[in-house]
Amino acid sequence: MLKFVKNYMDSIAGIEIYPIISLIIFFGFFVVLCWWVITAKKDYITAVSNLPLDNQNQTEL
């Protein structure tokens, strides 16, 4: 089965660019996410981490 897929993919012109594009998108997202985590304010992180435990803002149905 893998040989069929590999041979079929080899016959498509320009397909070698797609793994490179995927890697660049993944790496860019990873770098941006790491930058956001490093530069996030501690007050914001604390407020967001306490959201599931905050019962004051819940409305009763």
What would you say about this model in short?
By secondary structure, the chain is an all-alpha fold.
Written account of the structure:
The protein is an all-alpha fold and 61 residues long. Helix content is 66%, strand content 0%. It is built from 3 helices and no strands. It has helices at 2-10, 17-39, 42-49. The termini are far apart.
Write the topology of this structure.
Elements: H1 2-10, H2 17-39, H3 42-49
Please name the defining characteristics of this protein.
61 residues, mainly alpha, 3 helices, elongated
Structural class: mainly alpha
Q: How much helix, percentage-wise, in residues?
A: 55-70%
What is the overall pLDDT average? 83
What are the segments in which pLDDT stays under 50 over at least 5 consecutive residues? none
Beta strand count: 0
Rounded to the nearest angstrom, the radius of gyration is: 23 Å
| Outline | elongated
Order of helices and strands: HHH
Q: How far is it from the N-terminal to the C-terminal residue, by CA?
A: 55 Å
Strand content: under 5%
- Structure annotation, total helices: 3
Largest sheet: none
